[in-house]
Design brief:
By secondary structure, this protein is an alpha+beta fold. The protein has 2 domains: about 130 residues, 3-Layer(aba) Sandwich (Rossmann fold), CATH 3.40.50; about 140 residues, Tumour Suppressor Smad4 (Sandwich). Helix content is about 20%, strand content about 35%. The strands form 3 sheets. It has a 6-stranded antiparallel β-sheet. The protein has a 6-stranded antiparallel β-sheet with strand order 13-12-11-8-15-16, with no helix packed on it. It has a 5-stranded parallel β-sheet with strand order 3-2-1-4-5. Strand 1, helix 1 and strand 2 form a beta-alpha-beta unit. It starts with 7 loop residues before the first strand and ends in a 10-residue tail after the last helix. The model has no long low-confidence stretch (mean pLDDT about 90).
């Protein structure tokens, strides 16, 4: 159970989703006449003022990453949640994900449950889960705009005709030379994302581990591997076109193959705010339809 007093809330959203408007109306109605300050990006505030005659009572603008809040709302899908987590960084602000997307493991509050979820937060009926992140270092100093990832770090080829070789090492020992279309290093949070789509295991968020999953491996007997998250993983890529693609939670950058990478657990965690009724296994049953029998007799 949480014990957090809420006086200031940062709101992030995906303006490209047409469903967002309904959620904004619900939020405006919920926060009307409440003694809570709402923090908005300027483009988000302009959207609200343009679409609605009424706005939030108390609004402050978020200027870059220089802000503080008691909690954050992410309105969109899991991609929006990942972007919100990037904005939050190491501020220790818990994030509540409101789902306007499709599946939604991170943004798991349905649009019909927004009011109940927010009332639960204000009444301290919630839990906070701490989730680990990955941190990427380039050994040659190549700059990454944001070197952190809540879900995963993925290396992939640029050409469709040839695979790449990824030499993965830890503790000075070679794990494997992966001949594949790519390689995914995921956190437990990311185990239900890209990693799961290539056959990686689902990992409970509290397990302190990384999952290493090859993408379209040339060797069928090479399987996903779980390692402790206090290990440091070093990656070297060999490619015919002398480059490869790195993606951190979907943020992509082309890298020269001479750039070696070091991946470790980040020095801070992201806090995910969950309504009391929301659990990890409940989310799996709901989102992945565990136990649902769709057969016609």
């Amino acid at each position: 159970m949480g014990t957090k007093e809420i006086h200031k809330i940062a709101v992030f959203g995906n303006l490209h989703r047409t469903e967002l408007d309904t959620q904004i109306v619900q939020l405006i109605r919920f926060f009307h006449n409440k003694d809570i300050v709402i923090l908005l990006d300027d483009f988000f505030q302009n959207y609200i003022l343009e679409k609605h005659k009424n706005s939030f009572d108390n609004v402050e603008l978020i200027s870059g990453d220089d802000f503080t809040a008691d909690m954050a709302l992410s309105i969109g899908g899991d991609g929006t949640f990942l972007n919100s987590a990037t904005r939050i960084g190491n501020k220790n602000i818990p994030i509540l994900g409101i789902n306007t997307g499709r599946l939604g493991f991170l943004a798991d509050v349905a649009k019909n449950d927004i009011t109940d979820a927010l009332n639960g937060v204000l009444e301290n009926r919630f839990t906070i889960e701490k989730r680990s992140l990955l941190k990427v270092e380039t050994l040659d100093g190549t700059r990454l705009d944001t070197p952190y990832a809540l879900n995963d770090v993925a290396l992939s080829k640029q050409e469709s005709s040839s695979m790449i070789i990824i030499n993965a090492k830890t503790n000075g020992e070679l794990i494997n030379s992966y001949q594949a279309d790519g390689l995914i290093i995921s956190t437990p949070t990311g185990s239900t994302a890209y990693s799961m789509s290539v056959g990686g295991p689902i990992v409970v968020p509290q397990v302190q581990s990384f999952v290493i999953s090859p993408v379209a491996s040339h060797s069928l007997n090479v399987r996903p591997l779980i390692v402790p998250d206090d290990w440091v993983i070093e990656l070297e890529v060999l490619s015919r076109n002398n480059s490869y693609l790195i993606s951190l939670d979907g943020r992509s950058k082309v890298m020269d193959q001479s750039t070696k990478l070091r991946i470790r657990r980040a020095e801070y965690e992201i806090q995910i705010l969950k309504p009391q009724s929301h659990t990890f296994f409940g989310t799996l049953r709901n989102k992945l339809l565990w136990g649902a029998d769709k057969r016609n007799y």
